[in-house]
Design brief:
Number of domains: 1
Oligomer: single chain
Radius of gyration: 16 Å
Shape: flat
Structural class: alpha+beta
Strand order of the largest sheet: 1-2-3
Number of strands: 3
Strand content: 5-15%
Distance between the termini: 47 Å
């Protein structure tokens, strides 16, 4: 179930992927999200509405609602799913592949 007043959570960054700033990637600096989310320029602009002040029912644009679903699935929204991850004593590893297998 989507939050009624969706809000982006903290520790996210949105990085342009081209010099014209027409495409972006949203990623989690804590590396707790299972993915990075590519965004168009329009979707990037829509992020400003995800501040917890706007009700989901106020939006009728299907593309906007699809974006909110993707953000919720990717754990980019501050909501029940995100809070369950934070409350869990076990989290998925985030640094596998970052370090050499044999550090010596």
């Amino acid at each position: 179930m989507l939050p009624q007043r969706p809000r982006l959570r903290e520790h996210l960054e949105c990085v342009p992927v081209d010099h014209r700033r027409r495409a972006f990637v949203l990623r989690d600096r804590l590396r707790l999200s299972p993915c990075e989310l590519p965004l168009s320029f329009v979707e990037w602009n829509w992020l400003s509405y995800l501040d917890g002040q706007h009700a989901l029912e106020d939006f009728t644009n299907d593309a906007f609602l699809d974006l909110v679903r993707k953000l919720d699935t990717g754990l980019f929204l501050d909501g029940e799913r995100w809070r369950a991850i934070l409350a869990s004593p076990i989290r998925p590893p985030a640094c596998i592949g970052v370090y050499d297998e044999d550090p010596v």
